[in-house]
Design goal:
Blueprint: E1 2-7, H1 11-28, E2 32-37, H2 40-49, E3 56-60, H3 68-80, E4 88-93, E5 108-111, H4 116-130
Parallel strand pairs: 1-2, 1-3, 3-4, 4-5
Length: about 140
């Protein structure tokens, strides 16, 4: 089972991503453990306080206090300290200049509104990386951002 986190301060954005993930799971007979967070602080608190880790995180960039980038930096710090296993991070953003996000080595940076096709490609790739899917697809090779 793959653990997925979705972090966005706008609830509908979390729901759109969750719906695409659930649809993919239904079509491919895969169950995902999905947790949604309304802020970077909430996500970091869970990761720090509990024995929680994620295989894949979808992070909004613009949030009220901690940005997605600041959240990702804290997660990478925990990974480097050996406190948490590495996870794939996908930024979901409406920002134009995404170069600054590269410092945390995201798997992808995708633009809002989110396309289910892009979510599907990301899930297929991460599942294949974990050895849980038969098809290997590289997200981004389909010409999308």
């Amino acid at each position: 089972m793959m653990n997925i986190g979705i972090c966005d301060d706008i609830t509908i954005n979390c729901e759109v991503i969750e719906a695409a993930i659930l649809q993919y799971g239904e079509e491919n007979n895969i169950t995902f453990n999905i947790r949604k967070f309304g802020s970077g602080e909430e996500l970091i608190d869970l990761i720090s306080m509990e024995d929680a880790s994620f295989d894949l995180l979808f992070l909004d960039y613009y949030m009220k206090e901690l940005t997605g980038l600041e959240t990702a930096k804290r997660i990478r710090h925990l990974e480097q300290a050996g406190c948490k296993p590495a996870c794939n991070i996908v930024f979901v953003t409406s920002m134009d200049n995404t170069y600054e996000l590269m410092c945390v080595h995201p798997l992808r940076v995708i633009r809002k509104p989110v396309s289910p096709g892009i979510i599907n490609a990301i899930l297929t790739y991460v599942l294949s990386e974990k050895g849980e899917a038969h098809a290997v697809s590289n997200p981004g090779r389909d010409g999308s951002k």
